[in-house]
Design goal:
Elements lengths: L3 E2 L2 H21 L5 E7 L3 H16 L3 E7 L5 H12 L6 E4 L9 H7 L11 H8 L8 H12 L8 E5 L6 H10 L3 E5 L6 H6 L3 E4 L17 E4 L3 E2 L5 E2 L4 H5 L4 E2 L6 H26 L1
Parallel strand pairs: 1-11, 2-3, 2-4, 5-6, 5-7, 7-8, 8-11
Antiparallel strand pairs: 9-10
Helix pairs in contact: 1-10, 2-10, 6-7, 6-10
Bound molecules: NADPH dihydro-nicotinamide-adenine-dinucleotide phosphate (NDP).
Length: 288
């Protein structure tokens, strides 16, 4: 068996078109959806990510502001800048690119972003809302994965889903979304005993560890859906995922490639979260 390739570029393009149409409607109502992206320091990968996010915003007709600060920016200055953006009515979404320099407390920074503008969905209030089944913002990467599963008509109700990786930004919110959709979910981490036992029992495997090629074909049940969230730079300088694509593709029912899988979906869902924030703000201003 050779698995279908789930095309994240194509699906993301459809979602971005929808965002552009919604942005055009809002703009005619006098609200131009706005996203502020803050980057502190010169991390090359982060620079690429923020540039891609800003370019995607512009293309969809959203207003975007990229603020770049030196690595020695103080925490106080960053918090103060976020507070100013919190009260700027032209900005509906605020994203602070992680990781931040070591002297800055990321948790404090995320908690300073208004929960209503937290388009990454990392604020503790948004994590709580997701956990209790009433999400305001879904974190972009797991939200994108859900859209991919939906596009493949994957039946989630009653499915066995195994998530490899338990981070706050991918693994844990992924588990919440799958569980809310009716899947039976296991979250594995670096201490999990016999990881392959878990993955071999899964109908859906989502891998987000940052360990290149760690999930191999022999760890996958024939026909399972495999979603590779990982973005790593291989020894040859090329991008690769956390899944060993060649061996898993031979066994899986469907698989996401890297690049061209989850990555483009993450950006598309950032635009979705921003447009939703702007639509909510517009409704709120009408009701005043
Ligand atoms: P983190 O480093 O925050 O978390 C990694 C998780 O993987 C941890 O829970 C860790 O376990 C677990 N883990 C590590 N090694 C193993 C192992 N051998 N077996 C089982 N679990 C393991 O990573 P992120 O979640 O931030 O990112 C993961 C990957 O996804 C990275 O490659 C990142 O670049 C990529 N990414 C891609 C995005 C996209 O848009 N496509 C967006 C965000 C991330 P423990 O808790 O025990 O330490």
């Amino acid at each position: 068996m050779t698995g279908r390739v789930i095309d994240g570029v194509k699906l993301a393009a459809t979602i971005r078109e929808d965002v552009a149409a919604r942005a055009a409607v809002l703009t005619t109502k006098g609200v131009k959806p706005g996203l502020a992206v803050i980057l502190v320091g010169q991390d090359p990968a982060s620079q690429v990510y923020v540039r891609n996010k800003v370019a995607a915003c512009e293309k969809a007709g959203l207003h975007s502001v990229l603020e770049q600060y030196p690595a020695d920016m103080t925490q106080e200055a960053l918090l103060s800048r976020i507070e100013t953006l919190n009260s700027d009515h032209r900005i509906h979404g605020i994203l602070v690119q992680l990781p931040l320099p070591k002297h800055i407390d990321s948790h404090r920074v995320i908690e300073t972003i208004s929960a209503q503008k937290d388009v990454d969905g990392f604020h503790v209030s948004n994590a709580g809302l997701l956990m209790t089944g009433t999400p305001l913002f879904r974190p972009c990467t797991p939200y994108g994965v859900m859209k991919m599963l939906e596009s493949e008509d994957v039946v989630l109700r009653g499915a066995v889903a195994v998530i490899v990786g338990a981070s706050n930004i991918v693994g844990k919110p992924m588990a919440m979304l799958l569980q809310a959709a009716g899947a039976t979910v296991t979250i594995c981490n670096s201490k999990t005993r016999d990881l392959a036992w878990h993955t071999r029992h899964a109908d859906i495997v989502v891998v987000a560890t940052g360990k290149p090629g760690m999930v191999t074909g022999d760890m996958i049940k024939p026909g399972a859906i495999v979603i590779d969230v990982g973005i790593n730079r291989g020894a040859d300088g090329k991008l690769c995922g956390d899944v060993d694509y060649a061996s898993v593709k031979e066994v899986a029912g469907a698989i996401t490639p890297v690049p061209g899988g989850v990555g483009p979906m993450t950006i598309a869902m950032l635009l979705v979260n921003t447009i939703e924030a702007a639509e909510r703000a517009q409704l709120l201003s009408r009701s005043r």
